[in-house]
Design goal:
The protein has about 650 residues and is α+β, with helices and mostly antiparallel strands. It contains 26 helices and 20 strands. Helix 20 crosses helix 21.
C-alpha cells in the first residue's frame, strides 16, 4: 500500500502547548504555511502555501483515499490541521502515527530524541525551534520590527528559506524513523484502536463554561482577600514576595534558610515564635494552594462547540501502553467526597461565593471537589459512567493462577474482606461492621492494593495504610501475612524475572503463563502479551546490583521523573506490574471497542473507567456493565466485572 509521509508548519495566535491543537486551529488566523510530503521512497517536496502554491491534485485526492496510508510524527496534529485548513475529513483509519509507533517500542516521544536513540544518518534540524518561534507564533512589537505582531516570509527571506529546508528535513527524518520501525510492526488491532482513540479525541467532552468561569472568579476573590489580610498583618507591599516575607519573618525571629516552599511551610509553622507569624504562615500556605489550574486549562482549551478535545495520548505511558492525560489531565482529577455535590455545584454556578464558604469552609477545598462536575453531557443526554471492579487484583490472580482469589471474584467479590480472612485466618463472616474483626478489612484493603508487585512498607503507606489507622510498626507483618496468603503471586515475581533474564542471556524466547512470554530480538527484550501485542525493553543487559548482591536487569528508556533517555533498573515485581497494568489496559481497550460497536459515544476513559454520552431513553447502565463484563477471547477464565451509574455531570460515585 502507498504511504504518504506528511509534515506541516503552521501559524496560529493560540498557544498550541497550553490549549491543544483543536483550539489552536479555531483561531481566525490559523493557517498551514508549509506542506512537506513524500510518497514512499520518492524525493521530499515542500509546498509553500504562503506563496500561493497549490497542493498537487494527487496529494489532495490521496488525503481522503483509503488506499493510501497517511503518516506523520504526531499524526493527530497533521490530521486536525489538514481537516480545518482544507475543509475535509481526515479519517483516522487511513492514518498512522510514527510517534505512537516509537512509543510502542519504548522509545522517546519527541522526534529529535528518537532520531538520536536510533542513531539515524538523518537528524532533526535543530534550527527549527528558533524558526518556529519566528514564523509560527505571534511576536512582540519591538524597535526593530515596529508594531507588527507576526513575522511573514518577506520579513526575512533567508530565514524563510531555512524554514522550508527545516520542513523538508523533518519529512526525511520521520520517514527514516518509520523505515527503521517497520521491522517491528504495530498489530492491526492496535492501529484500529488508535483510530478509535482519535475518534474519542475528535469528539471531546462538553464543558460547563458558567461553572468554570465562576470557579476562576471565586478563586480570584478568595486569593485577593488572603493577600489583603496578609498585607494588613505584615504591612508588606507584596506578601507574596519571598524576599519581602523572609525579611519580615526574620524581624519576627524566624529565619528561613531553606526558603518558603509549600513543603517547608508546615515545619515553619511548628517553629512560629508568635501568633502573628503563625497566622501569616497559614495565609501563605493557603495562598500557595492551586485549586484552579485545571479550570484555567479547561477555559483556554475549550472549542467553539463548548467541548474540550484531544485530552488523551495513546500509549502515553509507553512501558505499558496505557493512555496519558493532556491539557487538563483527566487521569488525575481530584475525587469528590462531599455528599451534597449538586447543591455545592449550583451555589458556585450562581456566584454565591460567600454562601459557598459558609457551607464548606475554604473555597479552595470545594473548588477542588467540583472540578469533575465541570464536565457535562450533551443536550438531551446523560452520562453513563462504568468502571472495572478491582481489575489489577483480578488480572494478577489470573496470571498467577492464585485460585482462591479467582474464586472470590467469581463469587461474592469481597476481595478486601477475603484477603483479610486469608491473612489472619479468621472467618470472612466476622469481617463485618460491628464485629471486632472488621478492623482487619483495612489491612486487607491496603495489602491488596499495595503488595501485588512486591512492594514494601513505603508501598503500603502510599496506598493509605497510615491514614487508615494502621500503625507503621505493623506494616512488615502485614506484608509477610499477605505474601503467605498469596504464594502463587509471589512465585510469579521470581518466575517473571528469571524468564526475562534467561531470554536476555540466551537471546531466546521463554514462556511465562497464559500466553505471556519474554522474547529477545534485535537488541530488544519483548514481553509478548496474550492480546497479541508486546511491551519493549530497549538494550536489555544484566548488571550487578549491590543492593541485592546479584545481577539485575537494566534497560534503556525514558527516566520518568527527569524525562531523559537513560539506564533503568527493573526486577520481578516491577516486571509483573508492567504485565498486569498492560493486560488491564488491554481489557479496557476491548471494552472501548465493544462499546463503540454498540453505538455508544465515548467521551472519556480514566484508568479503568469509561464515560459515555448517551441520549436519554437509550442505553442503560446494565447494558454497559454487561458489555464490560463479557469474557475476552484471549483471557479465558479471567473474571471481569464492572459497576456503573448515571449522572447529569461527571463525578466519582
Amino acid at each position: 500500500m502507498t504511504v504518504l509521509q506528511i509534515d506541516l508548519e503552521t501559524y496560529s495566535s493560540v498557544d498550541l502547548i497550553k490549549s491543544g491543537v483543536y483550539r489552536y486551529v479555531e483561531a481566525p488566523d490559523f493557517e498551514i504555511l508549509l506542506f512537506g510530503y513524500a510518497y514512499d521512497d520518492e524525493p521530499v517536496k515542500v509546498v509553500d502555501l504562503t506563496a500561493f502554491e497549490d497542493l498537487p491534485d494527487r496529494v489532495l485526492s490521496d488525503l481522503v483515499n483509503p488506499d493510501v496510508i497517511k503518516t506523520a510524527y504526531n499524526a493527530n496534529f497533521e490530521r486536525t490541521c489538514i481537516s480545518k485548513h482544507f475543509g475535509i475529513k481526515c479519517d483516522p483509519s487511513q492514518w498512522q502515527c510514527t510517534s505512537v509507533w516509537a512509543l510502542t517500542l519504548g522509545l522517546p516521544g519527541n522526534l529529535s530524541d528518537v532520531a538520536k536513540v536510533l542513531k539515524l544518518d538523518a537528524q532533526k534540524d535543530m534550527r527549527g525551534k528558533n524558526l518556529i518561534k519566528y514564523f509560527s507564533v505571534p511576536c512582540k512589537p519591538t524597535k526593530t520590527n515596529g508594531k507588527r505582531t507576526r513575522n511573514y516570509p518577506h520579513h526575512d527571506p533567508e530565514k524563510w528559506q531555512q524554514y522550508i529546508e527545516y520542513n523538508l528535513q523533518d519529512v526525511v527524518v520521520e520517514r527514516e524513523i518509520r523505515c527503521k520501525l517497520e521491522r517491528f510492526p504495530v498489530p492491526k488491532h492496535e492501529w484500529n484502536l488508535w483510530a478509535l482513540d482519535q475518534k474519542i479525541n475528535d469528539l471531546g467532552v462538553r464543558l460547563d463554561p458558567v461553572l468554570v468561569k465562576q470557579a476562576i472568579a471565586c478563586d480570584e476573590q478568595y486569593k485577593s482577600l488572603l493577600i489583603q489580610e496578609a498585607k494588613e498583618l505584615t504591612g508588606l507591599d507584596n506578601p507574596n514576595s519571598d524576599t519581602q516575607l523572609k525579611n519580615w519573618l526574620a524581624i519576627q525571629g524566624l529565619e528561613t534558610p531553606e526558603g518558603l516552599g509549600k513543603d517547608i511551610v508546615p515545619s515553619l509553622l511548628d517553629q512560629a515564635p508568635n501568633e502573628e507569624v503563625k497566622k501569616m504562615l497559614e495565609l501563605r500556605r493557603e495562598m500557595g494552594k492551586t485549586s484552579v489550574s485545571k479550570y484555567n486549562a479547561m477555559e483556554r482549551s475549550v472549542c467553539e462547540d463548548s467541548r474540550i478535545k484531544g485530552v488523551f495520548q495513546f500509549c502515553g505511558a509507553n512501558r505499558t501502553w496505557r493512555w496519558a492525560g493532556r491539557i487538563f489531565q483527566p487521569q488525575n482529577l481530584p475525587q469528590n467526597k462531599i455528599e451534597d455535590l449538586e447543591i455545592a455545584r449550583e451555589t458556585l454556578r450562581n456566584g454565591d461565593f460567600d454562601l459557598l464558604e459558609m457551607m464548606y469552609g475554604s473555597p479552595l477545598f470545594i473548588l477542588s471537589q467540583l472540578i469533575r462536575t465541570a464536565l457535562i453531557p450533551s443536550d438531551g443526554c446523560r452520562f453513563i459512567v462504568s468502571d472495572f471492579s478491582a481489575i489489577e487484583a483480578r488480572v494478577i490472580a489470573w496470571l498467577a493462577d492464585e485460585k482462591w482469589v479467582l474464586d472470590v471474584f467469581k463469587g461474592h467479590g469481597k476481595i478486601y474482606e477475603a484477603t483479610a480472612a486469608q491473612m489472619f485466618k479468621v472467618p470472612i463472616e466476622t469481617i463485618v461492621k460491628g464485629h471486632e474483626n472488621y478492623s482487619l478489612r483495612a489491612k486487607g484493603k491496603v495489602a491488596t492494593l499495595a503488595c501485588g508487585y512486591s512492594g514494601g512498607p513505603p508501598a503500603l503507606i502510599a496506598m493509605g495504610a497510615l491514614k487508615s489507622g494502621i500503625p507503621e510498626e505493623d506494616l512488615p507483618g502485614i506484608i509477610k501475612q499477605w505474601r503467605n496468603a498469596n504464594p502463587n503471586i509471589v512465585k510469579l515475581w521470581y518466575a517473571a524475572e528469571n524468564a526475562a533474564i534467561e531470554a536476555i542471556q540466551s537471546k531466546t524466547t521463554v514462556k511465562l503463563a497464559h500466553g505471556v512470554q519474554y522474547r529477545f530480538e534485535a537488541g530488544i527484550l519483548f514481553a509478548d502479551l496474550p492480546s497479541g501485542r508486546s511491551l519493549a525493553y530497549v538494550n536489555p543487559r544484566l548488571k550487578y546490583d549491590s543492593k541485592f548482591n546479584k545481577d539485575g536487569i537494566v534497560f534503556d528508556g525514558m527516566e520518568q521523573t527527569k524525562k531523559k533517555w537513560s539506564a533503568n533498573r527493573t526486577y520481578g515485581g516491577r516486571l509483573v506490574e508492567n504485565l498486569i497494568q498492560a493486560i488491564a489496559r488491554d481489557c479496557l481497550a476491548e471494552s472501548l471497542t465493544r462499546l463503540d460497536k454498540e453505538g455508544y459515544k465515548i467521551v472519556m476513559h480514566v484508568h479503568d473507567e469509561v464515560v459515555l454520552d448517551v441520549p436519554i431513553g437509550t442505553g442503560s447502565v446494565e447494558h454497559v456493565t454487561a458489555i464490560m463484563g463479557q469474557e475476552i477471547d484471549w483471557a479465558k477464565a479471567l473474571p471481569l466485572k464492572a459497576a456503573g451509574f448515571e449522572c447529569d455531570f461527571y463525578q466519582k460515585d
